[in-house]
UniProtKB/TrEMBL annotation:
This is Fic family protein. The lineage of its organism: Bacteria, Bacillati, Actinomycetota, Actinomycetes, Propionibacteriales. It comes from the Bacteria. InterPro entries: Fido, Fido-like_dom_sf, Fido_containing. SUPFAM superfamilies: Fic-like. Residues 142-278 form the Fido domain. PROSITE patterns: FIDO.
Length: 492
Protein backbone atom coordinates (compact mmCIF):
# COMPACT_ATOMS: atom_id res chain seq x y z
CA UNK A 1 0.00 0.00 0.00
CA UNK A 2 1.26 3.46 -0.84
CA UNK A 3 1.40 5.80 2.13
CA UNK A 4 -0.97 8.77 1.86
CA UNK A 5 1.06 11.95 1.57
CA UNK A 6 0.43 15.68 1.81
CA UNK A 7 0.16 17.58 -1.44
CA UNK A 8 2.43 20.32 -0.08
CA UNK A 9 5.44 18.98 1.79
CA UNK A 10 5.09 15.25 1.07
CA UNK A 11 4.67 14.38 4.76
CA UNK A 12 5.03 10.61 5.33
CA UNK A 13 1.82 10.08 7.31
CA UNK A 14 2.38 6.39 7.83
CA UNK A 15 5.67 7.08 9.63
CA UNK A 16 3.74 7.62 12.86
CA UNK A 17 1.84 4.34 12.40
CA UNK A 18 4.95 2.16 12.39
CA UNK A 19 5.00 -0.02 15.48
CA UNK A 20 1.33 0.65 16.33
CA UNK A 21 -1.74 -1.57 15.86
CA UNK A 22 -3.17 0.95 13.36
CA UNK A 23 -2.98 1.43 9.61
CA UNK A 24 -4.62 3.80 7.15
CA UNK A 25 -5.69 2.95 3.62
CA UNK A 26 -5.15 5.21 0.63
CA UNK A 27 -8.77 6.38 1.02
CA UNK A 28 -7.63 8.29 4.12
CA UNK A 29 -5.37 10.61 2.10
CA UNK A 30 -7.89 13.49 1.68
CA UNK A 31 -8.63 13.56 5.42
CA UNK A 32 -4.93 13.54 6.25
CA UNK A 33 -4.24 16.42 3.89
CA UNK A 34 -7.10 18.36 5.50
CA UNK A 35 -5.66 17.56 8.93
CA UNK A 36 -2.26 18.90 7.94
CA UNK A 37 -3.65 22.17 6.60
CA UNK A 38 -5.80 22.74 9.66
CA UNK A 39 -2.94 21.92 12.01
CA UNK A 40 -0.62 24.41 10.29
CA UNK A 41 -3.31 27.07 10.66
CA UNK A 42 -3.61 26.11 14.32
CA UNK A 43 0.09 26.67 14.93
CA UNK A 44 0.02 30.08 13.24
CA UNK A 45 -3.09 31.11 15.15
CA UNK A 46 -1.79 29.80 18.47
CA UNK A 47 1.31 31.98 18.46
CA UNK A 48 -0.71 35.12 17.65
CA UNK A 49 -3.41 34.33 20.22
CA UNK A 50 -0.90 33.71 23.02
CA UNK A 51 0.92 36.94 22.24
CA UNK A 52 -2.34 38.89 22.26
CA UNK A 53 -3.44 37.41 25.60
CA UNK A 54 -0.01 38.14 27.04
CA UNK A 55 -0.14 41.79 25.93
CA UNK A 56 -3.53 42.09 27.62
CA UNK A 57 -2.13 40.64 30.83
CA UNK A 58 -4.61 37.76 30.79
CA UNK A 59 -2.42 34.76 30.00
CA UNK A 60 -2.18 33.60 33.63
CA UNK A 61 -5.95 33.85 34.13
CA UNK A 62 -6.59 31.90 30.91
CA UNK A 63 -4.13 29.20 31.92
CA UNK A 64 -5.90 28.93 35.28
CA UNK A 65 -9.33 28.63 33.65
CA UNK A 66 -8.19 26.01 31.13
CA UNK A 67 -6.52 24.00 33.90
CA UNK A 68 -9.77 23.90 35.87
CA UNK A 69 -11.74 22.98 32.75
CA UNK A 70 -9.26 20.17 31.99
CA UNK A 71 -9.79 18.61 35.42
CA UNK A 72 -13.53 19.22 35.56
CA UNK A 73 -14.32 17.85 32.08
CA UNK A 74 -12.10 14.77 32.42
CA UNK A 75 -13.68 13.86 35.76
CA UNK A 76 -17.16 14.59 34.41
CA UNK A 77 -16.65 12.16 31.53
CA UNK A 78 -16.42 9.50 34.25
CA UNK A 79 -19.24 11.02 36.36
CA UNK A 80 -16.66 11.84 39.00
CA UNK A 81 -15.82 15.00 40.93
CA UNK A 82 -17.70 18.22 41.76
CA UNK A 83 -19.14 20.79 39.34
CA UNK A 84 -16.91 23.47 37.82
CA UNK A 85 -17.24 25.84 40.78
CA UNK A 86 -16.60 22.98 43.21
CA UNK A 87 -13.58 21.88 41.18
CA UNK A 88 -12.11 25.38 41.39
CA UNK A 89 -12.87 25.57 45.13
CA UNK A 90 -11.19 22.20 45.80
CA UNK A 91 -8.08 22.97 43.75
CA UNK A 92 -7.59 26.44 45.22
CA UNK A 93 -8.43 25.48 48.81
CA UNK A 94 -5.67 25.58 51.41
CA UNK A 95 -5.78 21.80 51.62
CA UNK A 96 -5.70 21.37 47.85
CA UNK A 97 -2.83 23.78 47.35
CA UNK A 98 -0.80 22.04 50.06
CA UNK A 99 -1.15 18.70 48.25
CA UNK A 100 -0.53 20.13 44.77
CA UNK A 101 2.45 22.34 45.69
CA UNK A 102 4.20 19.52 47.54
CA UNK A 103 3.26 16.94 44.88
CA UNK A 104 2.86 14.59 47.84
CA UNK A 105 0.35 11.97 46.76
CA UNK A 106 0.42 10.47 50.24
CA UNK A 107 -1.66 13.42 51.45
CA UNK A 108 -4.51 12.53 49.10
CA UNK A 109 -6.10 9.64 51.07
CA UNK A 110 -6.72 12.05 53.94
CA UNK A 111 -8.62 14.29 51.52
CA UNK A 112 -10.57 11.25 50.32
CA UNK A 113 -11.73 10.43 53.83
CA UNK A 114 -13.11 13.93 54.30
CA UNK A 115 -14.46 14.78 50.84
CA UNK A 116 -14.51 12.20 48.00
CA UNK A 117 -15.48 14.80 45.37
CA UNK A 118 -12.69 17.17 46.35
CA UNK A 119 -10.32 14.19 46.28
CA UNK A 120 -11.23 13.55 42.63
CA UNK A 121 -10.51 17.18 41.69
CA UNK A 122 -7.31 17.62 43.71
CA UNK A 123 -5.91 14.24 42.67
CA UNK A 124 -6.46 14.84 38.97
CA UNK A 125 -5.05 18.38 39.20
CA UNK A 126 -1.94 17.01 40.87
CA UNK A 127 -1.62 14.38 38.13
CA UNK A 128 -2.03 17.16 35.54
CA UNK A 129 0.81 19.14 37.15
CA UNK A 130 3.02 16.03 37.07
CA UNK A 131 2.04 15.42 33.42
CA UNK A 132 3.12 18.97 32.58
CA UNK A 133 6.56 18.11 33.94
CA UNK A 134 6.76 15.42 31.27
CA UNK A 135 5.87 18.06 28.68
CA UNK A 136 8.68 20.34 29.83
CA UNK A 137 11.08 17.40 29.68
CA UNK A 138 10.92 17.61 25.89
CA UNK A 139 9.62 15.40 23.14
CA UNK A 140 10.29 12.10 24.82
CA UNK A 141 6.84 10.55 25.14
CA UNK A 142 5.91 8.50 28.18
CA UNK A 143 7.71 5.64 29.91
CA UNK A 144 5.84 2.82 31.64
CA UNK A 145 7.00 4.29 34.95
CA UNK A 146 5.48 7.65 33.97
CA UNK A 147 2.15 6.01 33.17
CA UNK A 148 2.04 4.07 36.42
CA UNK A 149 2.99 7.18 38.38
CA UNK A 150 0.11 9.17 36.88
CA UNK A 151 -2.27 6.30 37.59
CA UNK A 152 -1.09 6.00 41.19
CA UNK A 153 -1.99 9.68 41.73
CA UNK A 154 -5.36 9.57 39.94
CA UNK A 155 -6.62 6.59 41.98
CA UNK A 156 -4.49 7.10 45.12
CA UNK A 157 -5.86 5.11 48.03
CA UNK A 158 -6.99 2.18 45.86
CA UNK A 159 -5.25 -1.16 46.25
CA UNK A 160 -4.52 -1.23 42.51
CA UNK A 161 -3.01 2.28 42.27
CA UNK A 162 -0.03 2.31 39.92
CA UNK A 163 -0.40 -1.40 39.07
CA UNK A 164 -1.39 -3.02 35.79
CA UNK A 165 -4.52 -5.14 35.88
CA UNK A 166 -4.07 -8.48 37.64
CA UNK A 167 -7.20 -10.05 36.16
CA UNK A 168 -9.09 -9.81 32.89
CA UNK A 169 -11.70 -7.10 32.54
CA UNK A 170 -14.59 -6.00 30.37
CA UNK A 171 -15.78 -2.53 29.40
CA UNK A 172 -19.47 -2.03 30.20
CA UNK A 173 -21.75 -1.80 27.14
CA UNK A 174 -18.86 -2.29 24.72
CA UNK A 175 -18.06 -5.15 22.34
CA UNK A 176 -14.34 -4.47 22.76
CA UNK A 177 -12.53 -6.92 25.03
CA UNK A 178 -9.43 -5.39 26.66
CA UNK A 179 -6.06 -7.14 26.51
CA UNK A 180 -5.58 -10.21 28.75
CA UNK A 181 -3.38 -9.55 31.75
CA UNK A 182 -0.38 -11.51 30.48
CA UNK A 183 -0.22 -9.32 27.35
CA UNK A 184 -0.38 -5.93 29.13
CA UNK A 185 3.33 -5.45 30.05
CA UNK A 186 4.50 -6.18 26.50
CA UNK A 187 1.76 -4.01 24.97
CA UNK A 188 2.58 -1.09 27.24
CA UNK A 189 6.29 -1.55 26.56
CA UNK A 190 5.57 -1.25 22.84
CA UNK A 191 3.36 1.78 23.50
CA UNK A 192 6.03 3.55 25.58
CA UNK A 193 8.76 2.85 23.03
CA UNK A 194 6.62 4.22 20.21
CA UNK A 195 5.64 7.33 22.21
CA UNK A 196 9.29 8.26 22.65
CA UNK A 197 9.97 8.49 18.93
CA UNK A 198 10.20 11.94 17.31
CA UNK A 199 7.86 12.63 14.41
CA UNK A 200 7.08 15.54 12.11
CA UNK A 201 5.05 18.33 13.76
CA UNK A 202 2.43 17.82 11.05
CA UNK A 203 1.66 14.48 12.72
CA UNK A 204 1.04 15.90 16.20
CA UNK A 205 -2.76 15.47 16.29
CA UNK A 206 -2.58 12.05 14.65
CA UNK A 207 0.11 11.01 17.14
CA UNK A 208 -2.05 12.08 20.10
CA UNK A 209 -5.09 10.25 18.72
CA UNK A 210 -3.10 7.06 18.16
CA UNK A 211 -1.68 7.26 21.67
CA UNK A 212 -5.12 7.76 23.22
CA UNK A 213 -6.84 5.05 21.19
CA UNK A 214 -4.01 2.55 21.76
CA UNK A 215 -3.92 3.16 25.51
CA UNK A 216 -7.68 2.77 25.98
CA UNK A 217 -7.70 -0.29 23.70
CA UNK A 218 -5.18 -2.06 25.95
CA UNK A 219 -7.05 -0.84 29.07
CA UNK A 220 -4.03 -1.55 31.27
CA UNK A 221 -5.43 -0.51 34.65
CA UNK A 222 -8.32 -1.70 36.75
CA UNK A 223 -9.86 1.80 36.84
CA UNK A 224 -8.87 5.31 35.82
CA UNK A 225 -7.89 4.39 32.25
CA UNK A 226 -9.88 7.23 30.69
CA UNK A 227 -8.40 9.91 32.94
CA UNK A 228 -4.84 8.65 32.45
CA UNK A 229 -5.37 8.37 28.69
CA UNK A 230 -6.51 11.99 28.50
CA UNK A 231 -3.49 13.09 30.52
CA UNK A 232 -1.12 11.23 28.18
CA UNK A 233 -2.89 12.75 25.17
CA UNK A 234 -2.23 16.22 26.51
CA UNK A 235 1.38 15.32 27.28
CA UNK A 236 1.87 14.33 23.63
CA UNK A 237 0.16 17.47 22.38
CA UNK A 238 2.17 19.64 24.76
CA UNK A 239 5.43 18.02 23.70
CA UNK A 240 4.52 18.95 20.13
CA UNK A 241 3.82 22.57 21.12
CA UNK A 242 0.01 22.34 21.12
CA UNK A 243 -2.60 23.15 23.79
CA UNK A 244 -4.52 20.38 25.58
CA UNK A 245 -7.46 18.57 24.07
CA UNK A 246 -10.34 19.30 26.46
CA UNK A 247 -13.28 17.06 25.55
CA UNK A 248 -16.52 18.55 26.89
CA UNK A 249 -18.40 15.98 28.97
CA UNK A 250 -21.92 17.20 28.25
CA UNK A 251 -21.63 18.45 24.68
CA UNK A 252 -19.02 16.02 23.24
CA UNK A 253 -19.46 12.76 25.15
CA UNK A 254 -21.29 11.09 22.27
CA UNK A 255 -18.69 12.10 19.70
CA UNK A 256 -15.90 10.95 22.00
CA UNK A 257 -17.39 7.52 22.67
CA UNK A 258 -18.22 7.07 19.00
CA UNK A 259 -14.62 7.87 18.05
CA UNK A 260 -13.29 5.36 20.59
CA UNK A 261 -15.70 2.76 19.23
CA UNK A 262 -14.42 3.37 15.71
CA UNK A 263 -10.82 2.91 16.83
CA UNK A 264 -11.55 -0.14 19.02
CA UNK A 265 -13.62 -2.11 16.55
CA UNK A 266 -12.43 -0.96 13.16
CA UNK A 267 -8.97 0.47 13.78
CA UNK A 268 -10.18 3.80 12.32
CA UNK A 269 -8.45 6.51 14.35
CA UNK A 270 -9.44 9.46 12.16
CA UNK A 271 -12.71 10.34 13.98
CA UNK A 272 -10.73 10.70 17.22
CA UNK A 273 -8.10 12.71 15.34
CA UNK A 274 -10.82 15.03 14.05
CA UNK A 275 -12.31 15.46 17.53
CA UNK A 276 -8.94 16.38 19.06
CA UNK A 277 -8.33 18.82 16.21
CA UNK A 278 -11.70 20.44 16.94
CA UNK A 279 -10.84 20.85 20.63
CA UNK A 280 -7.48 22.46 19.86
CA UNK A 281 -9.12 24.88 17.40
CA UNK A 282 -11.69 25.76 20.05
CA UNK A 283 -8.93 26.43 22.58
CA UNK A 284 -7.31 28.91 20.21
CA UNK A 285 -10.67 30.56 19.56
CA UNK A 286 -10.98 31.14 23.30
CA UNK A 287 -7.49 32.63 23.43
CA UNK A 288 -8.41 35.03 20.61
CA UNK A 289 -11.23 36.44 22.74
CA UNK A 290 -9.62 36.33 26.18
CA UNK A 291 -11.94 38.81 27.90
CA UNK A 292 -15.05 37.00 26.62
CA UNK A 293 -13.68 33.63 27.72
CA UNK A 294 -12.66 35.01 31.12
CA UNK A 295 -16.12 36.50 31.65
CA UNK A 296 -17.81 33.23 30.67
CA UNK A 297 -15.60 31.23 33.05
CA UNK A 298 -16.28 33.59 35.95
CA UNK A 299 -20.03 33.51 35.34
CA UNK A 300 -20.10 29.70 35.38
CA UNK A 301 -17.99 29.52 38.52
CA UNK A 302 -20.20 32.07 40.26
CA UNK A 303 -23.23 29.98 39.26
CA UNK A 304 -24.92 32.99 37.67
CA UNK A 305 -28.08 31.94 35.90
CA UNK A 306 -28.96 32.67 32.30
CA UNK A 307 -32.73 32.59 32.10
CA UNK A 308 -32.80 32.64 28.29
CA UNK A 309 -30.37 29.73 28.02
CA UNK A 310 -32.28 27.72 30.65
CA UNK A 311 -35.51 28.42 28.79
CA UNK A 312 -33.96 27.34 25.50
CA UNK A 313 -32.56 24.12 27.00
CA UNK A 314 -35.95 23.27 28.47
CA UNK A 315 -37.61 23.90 25.10
CA UNK A 316 -35.12 21.63 23.31
CA UNK A 317 -35.66 18.81 25.80
CA UNK A 318 -39.40 19.07 25.30
CA UNK A 319 -38.89 19.18 21.51
CA UNK A 320 -36.82 15.97 21.55
CA UNK A 321 -39.33 14.20 23.78
CA UNK A 322 -42.20 15.11 21.46
CA UNK A 323 -40.17 14.21 18.36
CA UNK A 324 -39.23 10.83 19.82
CA UNK A 325 -42.89 10.06 20.51
CA UNK A 326 -43.93 10.99 16.97
CA UNK A 327 -41.09 9.05 15.35
CA UNK A 328 -42.01 5.93 17.32
CA UNK A 329 -45.30 5.86 15.41
CA UNK A 330 -43.19 5.19 12.28
CA UNK A 331 -41.05 2.53 14.02
CA UNK A 332 -38.13 4.94 14.36
CA UNK A 333 -36.18 5.43 17.57
CA UNK A 334 -34.68 8.71 18.73
CA UNK A 335 -31.62 8.48 21.00
CA UNK A 336 -30.68 11.73 22.82
CA UNK A 337 -26.88 12.04 22.94
CA UNK A 338 -25.25 15.35 23.96
CA UNK A 339 -26.58 18.67 25.23
CA UNK A 340 -25.59 22.23 24.47
CA UNK A 341 -24.09 23.76 27.58
CA UNK A 342 -24.33 27.46 28.44
CA UNK A 343 -20.74 27.88 27.31
CA UNK A 344 -21.35 26.26 23.90
CA UNK A 345 -24.72 27.98 23.50
CA UNK A 346 -23.10 31.40 23.84
CA UNK A 347 -20.23 30.42 21.57
CA UNK A 348 -22.59 29.23 18.83
CA UNK A 349 -24.45 32.54 18.97
CA UNK A 350 -21.22 34.57 18.95
CA UNK A 351 -19.81 32.63 16.01
CA UNK A 352 -22.86 33.01 13.78
CA UNK A 353 -20.85 34.88 11.16
CA UNK A 354 -17.88 32.47 11.20
CA UNK A 355 -17.48 28.95 9.89
CA UNK A 356 -14.20 28.17 11.64
CA UNK A 357 -14.09 27.26 15.29
CA UNK A 358 -17.82 26.76 15.84
CA UNK A 359 -18.57 23.51 17.64
CA UNK A 360 -21.25 21.12 16.44
CA UNK A 361 -23.12 19.25 19.18
CA UNK A 362 -24.45 15.79 18.33
CA UNK A 363 -27.83 16.15 20.03
CA UNK A 364 -29.61 12.97 18.89
CA UNK A 365 -29.51 10.02 16.49
CA UNK A 366 -32.59 8.53 14.84
CA UNK A 367 -32.39 4.84 13.90
CA UNK A 368 -34.60 2.27 12.19
CA UNK A 369 -34.64 -1.53 12.28
CA UNK A 370 -32.47 -1.77 9.15
CA UNK A 371 -29.45 -0.05 10.65
CA UNK A 372 -30.00 3.31 8.95
CA UNK A 373 -29.14 6.40 10.98
CA UNK A 374 -29.85 10.11 10.79
CA UNK A 375 -28.17 12.54 13.20
CA UNK A 376 -29.50 15.86 14.48
CA UNK A 377 -26.78 18.25 15.54
CA UNK A 378 -26.70 21.83 16.77
CA UNK A 379 -24.39 24.28 15.09
CA UNK A 380 -23.89 28.03 14.71
CA UNK A 381 -26.97 30.20 14.39
CA UNK A 382 -26.76 30.79 10.61
CA UNK A 383 -29.46 33.43 9.93
CA UNK A 384 -31.76 32.68 12.87
CA UNK A 385 -35.47 33.37 12.50
CA UNK A 386 -36.71 36.58 14.08
CA UNK A 387 -39.77 36.21 16.28
CA UNK A 388 -40.12 39.88 17.15
CA UNK A 389 -38.62 43.25 16.39
CA UNK A 390 -38.79 44.21 20.05
CA UNK A 391 -35.59 42.37 21.00
CA UNK A 392 -32.12 42.62 19.47
CA UNK A 393 -31.38 39.70 17.17
CA UNK A 394 -28.22 38.64 19.04
CA UNK A 395 -30.27 38.16 22.21
CA UNK A 396 -32.94 36.01 20.58
CA UNK A 397 -30.58 33.97 18.38
CA UNK A 398 -30.58 30.20 18.92
CA UNK A 399 -28.41 27.44 17.43
CA UNK A 400 -29.60 25.88 14.20
CA UNK A 401 -30.40 22.16 14.15
CA UNK A 402 -29.09 20.42 11.05
CA UNK A 403 -29.18 16.88 9.76
CA UNK A 404 -26.24 14.56 9.13
CA UNK A 405 -25.64 11.15 7.61
CA UNK A 406 -22.89 8.64 8.15
CA UNK A 407 -19.64 9.56 6.46
CA UNK A 408 -17.42 7.15 4.59
CA UNK A 409 -14.84 5.34 6.76
CA UNK A 410 -11.48 7.04 7.40
CA UNK A 411 -12.80 10.58 7.63
CA UNK A 412 -12.01 13.14 10.31
CA UNK A 413 -15.72 13.27 11.16
CA UNK A 414 -17.95 10.17 11.13
CA UNK A 415 -20.84 12.39 10.00
CA UNK A 416 -21.41 14.55 6.95
CA UNK A 417 -24.04 17.21 6.47
CA UNK A 418 -27.07 15.71 4.75
CA UNK A 419 -28.15 17.22 1.46
CA UNK A 420 -31.71 18.48 1.56
CA UNK A 421 -32.67 16.03 -1.19
CA UNK A 422 -31.57 13.16 1.07
CA UNK A 423 -33.84 14.15 3.96
CA UNK A 424 -37.06 15.02 2.20
CA UNK A 425 -36.16 18.64 1.54
CA UNK A 426 -35.10 19.44 5.13
CA UNK A 427 -32.24 21.91 5.62
CA UNK A 428 -32.41 23.43 9.11
CA UNK A 429 -34.69 23.61 12.11
CA UNK A 430 -34.80 26.10 14.98
CA UNK A 431 -36.49 25.67 18.35
CA UNK A 432 -37.35 29.24 19.33
CA UNK A 433 -38.31 30.04 22.94
CA UNK A 434 -41.60 31.89 22.80
CA UNK A 435 -45.16 31.63 24.06
CA UNK A 436 -46.02 29.24 22.56
CA UNK A 437 -42.61 27.78 21.72
CA UNK A 438 -42.11 27.97 17.96
CA UNK A 439 -40.53 25.52 15.53
CA UNK A 440 -39.03 26.95 12.35
CA UNK A 441 -38.51 24.44 9.54
CA UNK A 442 -36.26 25.52 6.69
CA UNK A 443 -36.71 23.38 3.57
CA UNK A 444 -36.23 23.55 -0.17
CA UNK A 445 -39.71 24.97 -0.50
CA UNK A 446 -39.01 27.80 1.95
CA UNK A 447 -39.33 28.42 5.66
CA UNK A 448 -42.37 27.70 7.79
CA UNK A 449 -43.06 28.58 11.39
CA UNK A 450 -45.46 26.73 13.68
CA UNK A 451 -45.88 25.94 17.33
CA UNK A 452 -43.84 22.95 18.50
CA UNK A 453 -47.10 21.08 19.11
CA UNK A 454 -48.16 21.31 15.45
CA UNK A 455 -44.70 21.46 13.84
CA UNK A 456 -43.15 18.34 15.39
CA UNK A 457 -45.60 15.89 13.70
CA UNK A 458 -44.76 17.45 10.32
CA UNK A 459 -41.02 17.21 11.01
CA UNK A 460 -41.36 13.58 12.15
CA UNK A 461 -43.31 12.72 8.99
CA UNK A 462 -40.60 14.21 6.77
CA UNK A 463 -37.89 12.31 8.65
CA UNK A 464 -39.87 9.09 8.29
CA UNK A 465 -40.19 9.68 4.54
CA UNK A 466 -36.42 10.16 4.34
CA UNK A 467 -35.92 6.80 6.04
CA UNK A 468 -38.28 5.22 3.54
CA UNK A 469 -35.58 5.27 0.89
CA UNK A 470 -33.96 8.64 0.30
CA UNK A 471 -30.60 7.76 1.91
CA UNK A 472 -28.53 4.73 2.84
CA UNK A 473 -25.66 4.35 5.29
CA UNK A 474 -22.24 3.55 3.80
CA UNK A 475 -20.83 0.09 4.11
CA UNK A 476 -18.12 -0.88 6.58
CA UNK A 477 -19.02 1.56 9.34
CA UNK A 478 -19.54 0.83 13.01
CA UNK A 479 -23.13 1.49 13.93
CA UNK A 480 -24.06 3.80 16.76
CA UNK A 481 -25.78 0.95 18.57
CA UNK A 482 -22.27 -0.16 19.54
CA UNK A 483 -21.62 2.90 21.69
CA UNK A 484 -24.88 4.77 22.34
CA UNK A 485 -25.59 2.70 25.44
CA UNK A 486 -22.30 3.98 26.90
CA UNK A 487 -23.27 7.67 26.68
CA UNK A 488 -24.64 7.52 30.21
CA UNK A 489 -21.63 5.57 31.46
CA UNK A 490 -17.96 6.44 31.62
CA UNK A 491 -15.50 5.57 28.84
CA UNK A 492 -13.24 3.68 31.22
Amino acid sequence: MTAPTSDSNDVPFLEVLNGTPYSLPSEAAPALVEMTKRLRNVRRGLDRAIEQARRMGLIAELDRAHAVFTVFESNSLEFEGPDLAGTLDAIESTEGQAVIRSLNANLLPEVLRRDPEAFAAIGLEMARVVANRYVRAGNRGMSQSDLRSLHSIVVKGSWYAGQYRSFDAAIADSLHKPFPTYAIPQAMGDYAAWSQKVFSQDLAILRAAIGHAWFTHVHPFQDGNGRVARLTTNVMLGQDGLPPAIVKARSQRGQYLAALSHSDEGGDILPLTGLFLDTVERYIGELRKPRVFQKMFNEIVQRRGDSYFEWYRSCVRDFLERLGTELALSNLTLHPIDEVTREVFNQLRRDAARDAGSPAVLMAIVTDDNGQELALYQTRTATPPSRTLQRPEDEEAVPAIRFALRNAPYSLSPWRRARATEVHGLQRVWVQPDRPVRLFIDGLEGQTQQSVMTGVPELADRIARAFAGEFMVPREYHGSSRWMSRVNGGPG
